[in-house]
Amino acid sequence: MSKSNRTTQEWQAADARHFLHPFTDFKGLAAKGSRIISKADNIYLWDSEGHKILDGMSGLWCVNVGYGQQSLIEAAAKQMAELPFYNAFFQTATMPAIELAEVLAEISPPGFEHVFFTGSGSEGNDTIVRMVRRYWDLKGSPERQIIIGRINGYHGSTMAGASLGGMSGMHAQGGLPIPNISHIEQPHWFEHGQDMSREDFGLKAAGWLEEKILALGADKVAAFIGEPVQGAGGVIVPPSTYWPEIQRICDKYGILLVSDEVICGFGRTGNWFGCETMGFKPDLMTFAKGVSSGYIPLGGVLVGARVAKVLIEEGGEFNHGFTYSGHPTACAVALANLKLLREQHVVEHVRDDIGPYLAQRFAELNEHPLVGETQSCGMMAALQLVKGKTPDKPTGTAFASELEVGMICRKYCFANGLIMRAVGDRMIVAPPLVMTRTQIDEMMGLIRRCLDQTWEELS
Ligand code: PLP
């Protein structure tokens, strides 16, 4: 029986009765009631009460081509009618998976000719752990076990993904991280480097990797993993000196370099992959989200020549894989998505037009008395809420964390029909890549209004 004529309150009650949401205080949600999203078009969502909302977060950093793209919808319907599912185990394959692997090799940086498909970014990072360890086993260095990630990095929610990430709240539950994962501090100039130039800080932050490698013993370290630009951690754009120095250090000690491209991949930073924007050459890349613009779950690992050669030529059977590795419907949607990105020159649109425009409009917010720093890279941007700005200290000082100023600002975003995320007191956006300048102006108007209302409440 259709339940589509339920009221919002009825939906909320059913939601609270049965649905355990991710990263959610279950009891708190039941008390407040969730917002039920019922439809979407282009960059807008509508809730069950008919309110229109500008989606400044592309769903969850994924709906890069915006909602309602017919070619993706038709690709799914066509593939479902023809062959909704078949697996890729036991020497079988489906055509969409083969074709998607080909296209991914075409758009990836030189040397990436192979892909391992998963159903999500977290599974992709689990695959990274398996592959990295297998690689060193095959190279005759099984003692190289340790993978180094970063505090406040995010690599997913499975045991390995959450371990590679450096989210203290996640580590506090369930005995994480798993053994042989280590972390260094993040390259967050605003928090750790204000006494020096951004460039000098970038070198210093990369130096923490070398210190960690030497402390652990270089012969024990297998790989370093990082997001080119930290997303969930608060859109932390590292100084330009950071990644080239990380690359130099990994090369010096022979350590594998892994780029988690789950957010940064497929145009978000103005190139196909974030490592291209940040100027480094990884050995492995995790992807998900933007590969299918979130229309359907899909992820994977792009495997560079150094690792692929060993796994293929010396590895024998790789005892790893998922039911949905290379899911034909997911791959068909991803193919339609990548075709759209290519035919409509979306990556160039981000690099040459809309990304620089977002950066310009965000930089203007630095004049606001609540804004201590803005950062952006392609179609992701952040502003830091602070108090007490003076000409001598234009970056101001942090609010007491118990004031939860980010949540106050988020409350106004909610009220004004804007999805903007609060990471502590850092407000972030990652809107669809197909946005126009007029739509950016509309979003910036809403952001300014929310900042003004927050300022008024705090004054
Ligand atoms: N890696 C990064 C950088 C992410 O941002 C995310 C999700 O936000 C993941 C991995 C995990 O992806 P998924 O939620 O698809 O498992």
Automatic annotation (TrEMBL):
CDD domains: OAT_like. InterPro entries: Aminotrans_3 (IPR005814), Aminotrans_3_PPA_site (IPR049704), PyrdxlP-dep_Trfase (IPR015424), PyrdxlP-dep_Trfase_major (IPR015421), PyrdxlP-dep_Trfase_small (IPR015422). Its cofactor is pyridoxal 5'-phosphate. GO terms for molecular function: transaminase activity. It holds the Pfam family Aminotran_3. Keywords: Aminotransferase, Pyridoxal phosphate, Transferase. It comes from the Bacteria. Transmembrane segments: none annotated. NCBIfam families: PRK07480.1. Belongs to the class-III pyridoxal-phosphate-dependent aminotransferase family. This is Aspartate aminotransferase family protein. It comes from Roseateles albus.
